[in-house]
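Re: the 609-residue chain
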Amino acid sequence: IVRAFIANMKAGRVVQGGSSITQQVAKLLFLSPERTLDRKIREAILSILIDRKYTKNQILEIYLNHIYYGHGAYGVEAAALTYFGKHVDQLSLSETAMIVSLPKAPSNYSPYRHLERAMMRRDHALGRLVAINAITKRQEIEALKEPLTLTGLKKPANKAPWFAEHVRRYLEKKYGADRLYRGGLTVRATLDLKLQRYADQAVRAGLEQTDKRLGYRGPLSHLDMEAGDAPDWDQLNKKRGKGADNLSMYNPGSKLRGLVLAVDKTKVDVGFENAKGSISIKNMNWAHPVNPARNALWVAKIKDATKVLKRGDIIEVKIIEGEPTEDGALPLKLEQTPVVQGALLAIDPHTGYVRAMVGGYDPDVTKFNRAIQALRQPGSSFKPIIYAAALDKGYTMASVIIDSPIIFNRAVTEFKGWKPVNFEKKFFGPTTLRTGITNSRNIVTIKLLDKIGVGYAASYARKFGIVSPLDANLTLALGASQVSLSEMVTAYGTLANGGVRMERIFVKSVENRNGDIIEKNEPFGAEAIPPSTAYIMVDAMKNVVKEGTARRIGRKMKRPIAGKTGTTNNYIDAWFIGYTPDLVCGVWVGNDNNKPMGKKETGSRTAIP
């Protein structure tokens, strides 16, 4: 230790360690992880005090109960459970040697990741125990012969994977991976688990419903059963484990893949590894061919199963409630994993606390968080910002704009000859701003933006927290500039909070292993727009929900709600952002590749449900 201290003093910085077990305890319990001379001095002083107060065995016990053993296990008891599924006093000599070999480099010597390397470390530890006469040579030989049976890593239940991953990235960027995973940090987040559960259910159900409405893309694959082809069941249902060992996969609500054994007009017989099922025609009548140009609401239901599936098809199904048939066939429903994606973000407008977040259909497939990372055209959901800007220019909700045909022939614009139209493909004459926003009239909004100025409106949008680049032309009125869902939810939160924009907060506080608060994020906001403007906009957007484009949700809600839908050209994006006095929730639905979803897949039909 003295030699390391002298080397560090000569260098003027920490270049050499010299940590005893006592020093490790001092560092683990009382000091921060930075490498400085000051910290090294304090470490040495604390080590002397610890040595005076505790015996060597007590110090070792503290050390073993606090160090990191890999895979989230702190302390030897947690390590015993993580690697061998037993308590520390139940470990064999071989298992004990394996565990005590881990702290030097838990990732490098993890038996889950590098079994051969871990076995070499175990063998080395056993050899050292013989060398110091802690065990006999015979005990070493017996331990080396013992087969090593790992319990298998159990994936922790993550009830908010999108939220947790966002927080993990934030913490790793701020504190570093070593401190995040090994520093014993306690993180208090803003998440509301109940709301998160509702959000997950709503997004999954909504995307599945939309995807089915768009049509059936066909079976996953096909086997020539007459030629002797057979399914690889382990591969087909690998996310669920082997069917023979996981009979719970056949419970109602379970989704899995099966083999079509027979098809007639009214039903499909499906086989699994050790079970069978049946799909009645009513549980697959949605499976018409995909056709984006067709309005899915007017498609006739499938009445002949032989036109959809054939023997040998590999398909996705869900087991549904109901009694098996006389021959034991489980009742099934035809399914398909959605291609269409979606995102949801809910915040408390008064604090900025993020209460729920969903970044897509399945976090196991992609970590791309569409609630935060995706930039999409917001369509008409951007219009409230234009109307609020107009109010602060002296307009009122009673101001009248003529909804009539217009052609832009300005030589300075790339849109020369542009003839915008309303969604309904007709014009409505003199229209108040209240009617314009209630019914999402394009012409009224474009003319209004033309009057107040694109530059002014774009600058005004910045007050709401819109930070993405905005096109400096009249298409801004139609939401043609790409923004994130998080930006839009923050903007609507400003309206719900009386004109005060709150910064989004995911993490309330972070404490170190000693309970000291090292980060605390209090709600912070500043007035973005006048309270009177926010109040008028809230009142107008209540009308959107009551009798406008968002009336579908207005009929279902039994409490005051305001909001706005958004749909982009060719039905590529669908939005709805709504708010009550204490919660703002935004939803986006679309394809990652920017392909159209399908005819009439609007914000009202697709995002609101």
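Residues 373-504+523-607 form a domain with the Beta-lactamase fold (CATH 3.40.710.10).
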